[in-house]
Amino acid sequence: MERRIRILMAKAGLDGHDRGAKVIARIFRDAGMEVIYTGLHQTPEQIVRSAVEEDVDVVALSILSGAHIGICRKIIQGLREAGAEEKVFIVGGTILEEEIPLLKEMGVTEVFPPGSPIDAGVTFLQGLFAERKAGESGHSEE
Amino acid sequence: MNSSERMEEEVRRWELQHRVKDLPEAQNELGRPVKVLYTPADTVHIDYLDKIGFPGEYPFTRGVYPGMYRVRPWAMRLYAGFGTAEDTNRRWKFLLKEGNHGVACAFDLPTQLGLDSDHPQAEDEVGRVGLALDTLRDMEILYEGLPLDQITTSFNINAPAAVILAMYVALGEKQGVPPEKLSGTLSNDILCEYVSRGMWVFAPEPALRLTTDIVEFCTRRMPRFYPFNIRGVLMREAGASMVQEAGFTFANAIAYIERALERGLHVDDFGRRISFFMATGTQIFEEAARYRAARRLWARIMKERFGARDPASMLFRFTGTVGGSVYRAQEPENNLIRGAYGLLANVLGGVQGMLHPALDEPFAIPTEETARLALRTQQICAYETGVTKTVDPLGGSYYVESLTDQLEEEIERVVSVIDEMGGAVKAIQRGYMQQCIADEAYRAALEEREGKRVIVGVNRFQGPSSAPRKMSFHRFDSMTWERQLRRLKDVRRERDQRAVQRALSRLEEEAKGSQNLIPCLIETVKTYASIGEIMDTLKGVFGLYQEPLVI
User: Fold this and answer.
1) Which residue is closest to A94 within chain B, CA to CA?
2) What is the pLDDT of residue A27?
């Protein structure tokens, strides 16, 4: 059976606004993905550890506190140190358009700023994983 | 045929003759059908003197005060705080000069969780969503040039509320203002944090001890201070429906009152100091009716359940704010219009004070420009539209009166469900309120996606102009953390270390006992012990909370 996309839905730092995280977690599940929710107040180290232990394909961070630049940097660094930099890392929340290039340069795969449709994450991940699969099967034919 | 039968007959005739049944259907926010037309036939069963009455008199449906806005408009505040105490002091002075009546203090997340600015988890958060406050020194700077006997502050803080109150009292003492003369409001509503915003530290039981210490201390020593401001707003913003918001808020309030009564206070000792803070959407009539219903129901709860005799204890006094979740990132100027309609709903609902979100709320904390526009929206409503001329202008509307009845019934049902579970604390420990809210948030998100709930410029009438546009936002000063760390380090170097240690040890001892901790906290903050040191001491005694995970 085809492996389902596994996602760690993470709330980092001190931010307690979890409406978005919970709604998006359900939207991912509706799309047939597996979602593990970290709960609130996770440190970047805890998130990296959960991502590795749970063997997820995707880390999805929801953050509304304005602390996203520092926290994303720490998570990416942690993933690299854990040898898990291949994991997809997506971020949604109160992120300004002008901050998106910096986040992507740091290694964030995709950013969902305010106003993103609730399905945007699903569409993005389905596209990305379909592309990867096509890539893999392309290689095996060679 | 009597006159009411004749009325019903006439309504039936009109409906048939004009084929009213063929018109499109409509539902109200409660999911109940809305008629095309409301007539005296819909309100004939309502006993005016019993259920509606007069403003300032039981059951307060029409308003908590007789003259309402004829005396003065609602209090206009802006929720403000960022960076360090200096930054916030400057913003507050600007807002007061522009005509705000008082300030509502926003704290950063480390402060709300009782962490010092040099805590490892605080690094990226210091001064972001509110001001950073570590010690009494920050409080002193915050109120420089703002004497405590001339300004009222509403503090939005719950888990470490007792520490903030202690600092406020200590600062008053330094300024020569005794506790008896301090006015202001402390939100001090920890239960809503477990339900929605996550700013909890301790488990509910020890947290409620601190809540009740505050109520007891204020009741005995601070007659002008509001020791709690019970909040629906955070639950609504997390997704609660308007009915759940009101019902859960009342259930939480009931839990606080029960604890205070267990301390030997009488409900009339502190009932007049209870206030509420609610979020309002753009459904003008439902919202206005909800506040009318809330007044009637709360008065009944206070009178019948708790035996209040003083009418002042029975008042549902509330601050209203248009929920930031009503606002959208697309075409942000539209938020001004949404805000203005929500604000009108508040006024028609008989609000006592308003915080009004600025149009850039979906993105960042407001700039001076957008903060000014938010205040102007309130001022234009108060001084240009004439809504302040008479009390409860919707009273007697066939539609609004029947909506008011429906809302009272639905809110009361929510309160009963929580009662049956054994009260708010039990319901929260089971994750019940959290689950209701998550379900409702999910439902609303799907409705918006499917276009069942129209949001102009988002899922209807969107065009090229709906694309994000260049706006200038509040800039976070990247030096904030360093500035605050320097201050904290200086305070730690200059204070009497032994006095701090003595105070913290005494606090630890008292926390293990059962006496009221506020006097001890006041002495502790005077030594410039930090909020983190104080909360760590209490954590050592009370332990930490594990949240039930609900999606």
Assistant:
1) B363
2) 97
